[in-house]
Specification:
This protein has about 300 residues and is an alpha/beta fold. The protein is built from twelve helices and twelve strands. It has one domain: 3-Layer(aba) Sandwich (Protocatechuate 4,5-dioxygenase, Chain B), CATH 3.40.830.10. Strands 7-4-8-2-12-9 form a six-stranded mixed beta sheet, sandwiched between helices. The radius of gyration is 18 Å and the shape is globular.
């Protein structure tokens, strides 16, 4: 009998828990929110899983069908099937220690307000992976990062983009926090500690935004173009990324004249460094989506893959 996709996922989850320490402007149409739709069967997992950074934008992307949602869907169809997903989201930052979700059934957290009821009722019932969470905690502690497990759900920085890419919600998801006093260098180190997960078919994903300035967000007026300063910084970031110039990106606030303006607070930019920290020298950039919403909100999303 040919195994079902669910059978494959069960086998993948079982294999994903073994030995990290040992390795160490389109028209938008909203659609009703409901239980996640079945996902197309992705390709089998390769030896090294790509890395992901996703600019998640507004929670409304979960129920909006446009070129961004299509690109996210296509990415899910093209990626190898992850055995698990580890997300670092802009929307979970804590004091020490770093927290790692460890529940078997993480809830869907609707950490936003003022949106349509159907968005507030949307669920993403992915399983957790307590064994892998415990392994990650021990790896981070051994690497110099105090960490603890926490029975918490997934915030919208995690589940909203995943609902577009893996709508079946069958892949185990773990979320790892940002930490208030950590620097880009710290996050690069954290990403490096997580990097061996790639060899086991586990997807490491940062979720935030390349240009995310709440004070300056606004709708475009008819005939108005995207703010030039935002385009300039977004373009600079892509050029530095292609050259693996992670040092310049880590010093973005002084390396580019609009760096501090692009990220007046750091929480949406910080997840980028976890993704970059897990990169291999031979990884190449694959653009999943580039473009803006409103006057200056970058939706740049990319993979790093060998």
């Amino acid at each position: 009998m040919k195994p079902t996709r669910r059978d494959v996922l069960k086998l993948a989850v079982a294999g994903g828990a073994a030995g990290l320490a040992a390795c160490s402007g389109a028209k938008e149409n909203t659609v009703p929110a409901s239980a996640p739709a079945p996902a197309p069967t992705p390709k089998p997992a390769s030896n090294r899983m790509p890395l992901l950074f996703v600019s998640h934008g507004s929670p409304m992307v979960a129920i909006t069908r446009d070129d961004y949602s299509q690109a996210m869907k296509w990415m899910g169809e093209d990626l190898p099937l992850p055995k698990a997903i580890v997300v670092v989201s802009a929307h979970w930052m804590e004091d020490k220690p770093i927290r790692i979700t460890a529940g078997e059934k993480p809830e869907t957290i609707h950490d936003f307000g003022g949106f349509p009821d159907k968005l507030h009722h949307m669920m993403y019932p992915s399983p957790g992976h307590p064994k892998l969470a415990d392994e990650i905690m021990k790896t981070l502690v051994a690497g110099g990062f105090p960490a603890r497990l926490e029975d918490r759900g997934l915030d919208h920085g995690a589940w909203v983009p995943l609902s577009l890419t893996f709508p079946g919600a069958e892949i185990p998801v773990i979320e790892v926090t940002l930490q208030y006093d950590m620097t880009p260098a710290d996050y690069l180190k954290l990403g490096k500690l997580l990097a061996p997960l790639r060899e086991r078919g586990i997807l490491i994903a940062g979720s935030g935004g390349v240009v995310h300035s709440n004070p300056e967000m606004r709708r475009l007026k008819p005939g108005e173009k995207t703010d030039a300063w935002a385009v300039n910084f977004d373009t600079w970031f892509r050029e530095r990324l292609a050259k693996h110039d992670f040092e310049s990106i880590a010093n973005y606030r002084v390396a580019h004249p609009e760096g501090a303006r692009a990220a007046p607070t750091t929480e949406h930019f910080d997840p980028i460094f976890v993704t970059l920290g897990a990169a291999a020298p031979e990884d190449q950039v694959v653009d999943v989506y580039e473009g803006f919403r409103g006057a200056n909100l970058s939706m740049r999303t990319f993979l790093l893959k060998s």
